[in-house]
Specification:
Strand order of the largest sheet of chain A: 3-2-4-5-7-6-12
Radius of gyration of chain A: 20 Å
Largest interface: A-B, 47 and 44 residues
Number of strands of chain A: 14
Oligomer: heterodimer
Number of helices of chain B: 15
CATH architecture of the largest domain in chain A: 3-Layer(aba) Sandwich
Number of helices of chain A: 12
CATH topology of the largest domain in chain B: Rossmann fold
CATH architecture of the largest domain in chain B: 3-Layer(aba) Sandwich
CATH class of the largest domain in chain B: Alpha Beta
Shape of chain B: globular
Shape of chain A: globular
Helix content of chain B: 40-55%
Strand content of chain B: 5-15%
Helix content of chain A: 25-40%
Number of domains of chain B: 2
Order of helices and strands of chain A: EHEHEHEHHEHEHEEEEHEEHEHEHH
CATH class of the largest domain in chain A: Alpha Beta
Strand order of the largest sheet of chain B: 1-2-3-7-6
CATH superfamily of the largest domain in chain A: Thiamin diphosphate (ThDP)-binding fold, Pyr/PP domains
């Protein structure tokens, strides 16, 4: 076990993938000489060369489109999109090509592309640097979408994503990049928990609280706070956003009867809606209350002086837990 | 008229188009080796690239041109008869496709648009597989790796990036094959095409940009896409370009061979503008009489890519009755095979809809497939469940 930051853990996972498979190639803006604006790829170009760790011109569609061509040629590209809000120029290549080529060619051409996207807010950035665009991609068939919440998962799951023969959108919680955690670099990603499985990170019996990425930490803190009030919250780290591991969620909700889901992305049409609906379909008669969503608002990501209002905080999550429990809360007295 | 003989209206001599000409004088004139009248004219730079083309090979090029026109005619007929949902005719663009595709090596890789069905024929794609997409039986007609040609790209220009990425892979592998990408004049307005040229130039990747300037992007004339000659844009990216008579199979071959050789030997990308004309509609769903002058069509009919090779063969005394019969028989046989393969193609099974979305099982999709198969089975009669009525 080694103590390391989140960013370092991804770096170490990328290094392992580069070492283990000569077809792995990293592409992105500023990832080589600079080591990435968050230093996630620090030192990799120096050790693996300019042909394995490629500084590209500033064109996201081209980064993605050339990754498609490299995948055609048998490579396993790992693309870094510098910030969440910069992924949109690549959207067409991701949605129309990366996601569809395996289906289009009836399995003849694989697209083992990993798209790393630092996402989410909380770092006081200007516009376009704090977004949570994951639902665009969870809605796109042909993609797998994951988000990591801690250095160990980041280390293991980046290797699993790269090893996947399907394209994977890999969402990294940028405000956690400098958080430290214990990482066992010797864990074999092939035998570790699959990236498609959710994980119960805190057991509880009264409410199931589902989070992913940056909010897993907040959710765990909320569970500790709730325990002080005698409420037992089970926290689940979703890990895989598409497909969602509903079996794990369902087992939890059958036990607790109450569901709260939280994400930074806006509420309407978000992942929380999918989780709430699917769980309602699967175990309606085990639910004691309507599922509750605690999310960002349906606004463009706000300027930084207001972001603390937008981001689900420990207190807003606890307020949601109170709603799920039918305890007095901010919406008491309102219908629906 | 929107266009002049050079394929671009409104550009005065000595205008911006003339400033960027190099590697064949892209700004000055079209490279042409066979006139519309069928006369072989010499060119100081490009004769050398086709001097090995024998009379016999010229005959085979002629046969290719005739055959792909026949494929196109037959596919158009199949669409009119309801056997295909749609077809994008290549009428008039035969020389651009044959001249370039017959210059490729087997290990080169093609990334094309949907109109390069003549290129697909040259790569050895089964005839029925060419129309499979257009019949709605699949989203792609063939396995790209069996013929080293990606299946047709419908998103305009997207494939130019795929070719560039593939070429970057060739470089990493230390191979000497080349990626070639086909696209139209309309595609040159797309960001992807411009970004592809930026990447190809920066990395000096072995990719050939083959632009079939057929003058029309559905109803929009080429001058709406580019204020200067398209080939001249390449200079802005630091990519050598050539403007070639796209209706001249030998000239296209010469230009493509030169570009391929440059790419194979570390010279990086080349941009070829093949000036041709889309004689038919954009697709069988289009009506070009709404936007196109009939006189323009007449002008281009006089520059037909097949007639000029026929004229050349005649001048050379090669157009014998036996030869013409051979070519006609080949075209007939291809048309029969295409039609038979099309109309006897088995329909996909309903549950094929779920296949190959992912390469490994996916819990969301597996559940939907399970539910839908139960739904189909609920009709009891398996045959009924497979009919369209059963699926409602």
């Amino acid at each position: 076990m080694t103590q390391m930051t989140f960013a370092r853990a991804i770096n170490s996972g990328l290094r392992k993938s580069l070492e283990n498979d000569p077809k792995v190639i990293l592409m992105g803006e500023d990832i080589g000489t600079l080591g990435g604006v968050f230093r996630v790829t620090d030192g990799l170009q120096k050790d693996f060369g300019k042909h394995r760790v490629v500084d590209t011109p500033l064109a996201e569609s081209a980064i993605m489109g050339t990754a498609v061509g490299l995948a055609y040629r048998g490579y396993r590209p790992v693309v870094e999109i510098q910030f969440d809000g910069f992924v949109y120029p690549a959207f067409d290549q991701i949605v129309s090509q990366v996601a569809k080529i395996h289906y289009r060619t009836q399995g003849a051409v694989k697209m083992p592309i990993t798209v790393r996207i630092p996402f989410g807010g909380g770092i006081g950035s200007p516009e376009h640097h704090s977004e949570s665009p994951e639902a665009y991609f969870t809605h796109t068939s042909g993609l797998r979408v994951v988000s990591v919440s801690n250095p160990q998962d980041a280390h293991t799951m980046i290797q699993q994503a790269i090893a996947s023969d399907d394209p994977v959108l890999f969402f990294e919680p940028k405000r956690r990049y400098h958080d430290k955690g214990e990482v066992d670099e010797s864990i074999d990603p092939a035998t570790a928990l699959s990236m498609e499985k959710a994980r119960v990170v805190a057991e509880g019996k009264d409410v199931t609280l589902v989070a992913y990425g940056p909010l897993v930490k907040t959710a765990k803190d909320a569970a500790v706070a709730a325990a002080d009030e005698g409420v037992s919250v089970e926290v689940i780290d979703l890990r895989s956003l598409a497909p969602v591991d509903f079996a794990t969620l369902e087992a939890s909700v059958r036990k607790t009867g109450r569901l709260v889901i939280t994400h930074e992305a806006g509420q309407s049409g978000g992942l929380g809606a999918e989780v709430a609906t699917s769980i309602t379909e699967r175990c309606f008669y085990h639910l004691e209350a309507a599922p509750v969503r605690v999310t960002g608002f349906d606004v463009p990501y706000p300027y930084s002086k207001l972001e603390s209002h937008h981001l689900p905080s420990l207190d807003r999550i606890l307020d949601g837990v109170d709603r799920a429990l039918g305890r007095p809360n901010s919406l008491s007295g309102l219908e629906g | 008229m929107f266009t002049d003989e050079l394929g671009q209206g409104g550009i005065p001599a000595g205008g911006p188009g003339d400033s960027a000409g190099h590697h064949g004088g892209a700004g000055e004139s079209l490279v042409q080796l066979i006139t519309p009248g069928g006369e072989r004219v010499s060119h100081p730079q490009y004769d050398a690239w086709v001097q090995d083309v024998s009379d016999e090979q010229l005959g085979f090029l002629y046969e290719d041109l005739v055959v792909i026109r026949r494929i196109d005619t037959e596919a158009t007929a199949l669409q009119r008869q309801g056997e295909l949902g749609l077809w994008p005719p290549l009428l008039g663009q035969e020389a651009a496709q044959i001249g370039s595709a017959r210059s490729l090596r087997d290990d080169d890789f093609v990334f094309s648009s949907y109109r390069e069905n003549g290129v697909a024929y040259c790569r050895g794609v089964d005839l029925a597989d060419i129309v499979k997409v257009w019949r709605g039986n699949a989203s792609a007609g063939w396995d790209p790796y069996t013929v080293n040609m990606a299946t047709p790209q419908i998103i305009i220009g997207a494939q130019t990036l795929h070719a560039t990425g593939y070429a970057m892979g060739i470089q990493n592998d230390g191979a000497d094959s080349v990626a070639i990408t086909y696209f139209g004049d309309g595609a040159t307005s797309e960001g992807d095409v411009n970004e592809a040229m930026v990447f190809a130039a920066s990395f000096q990747s072995p990719v050939v940009f083959f632009c079939s300037n057929n003058h029309w992007a559905i109803s929009e004339p080429v001058r709406l896409q580019s204020h200067i000659r398209i080939a001249d844009r390449a200079a802005g990216f630091g990519i050598p370009s050539i403007r070639v008579d796209g209706n001249d199979v030998l000239a296209v071959m010469a230009a493509t061979r030169e570009a391929l050789e440059r790419a194979r030997h570390g010279g990086g990308p080349t941009f070829i503008e093949a000036v041709t004309y889309r004689m038919g509609p954009h697709t069988t769903a289009d009506d070009p009489t709404r936007y196109r002058d009939a006189n323009e069509l007449e002008d281009w009919a006089a520059k037909d890519p097949i007639a000029r090779v026929k004229g050349l063969l005649e001048r050379k005394g090669l157009l014998t009755g036996q030869f013409e019969a051979r070519v006609a028989a080949k075209a007939d046989a291809v048309a029969r095979e295409l039609r038979a393969g099309c109309i006897t193609m088995p329909d996909p099974e309903p549950l094929d809809i779920f296949k190959h979305v992912y390469s490994t099982p996916n819990s969301w999709l597996d559940r939907q497939e399970d539910h839908y198969s139960r739904y189909l089975a609920s009709f009891g009669d398996p045959a009924g469940a497979h009919s369209e009525e059963g699926a409602r």
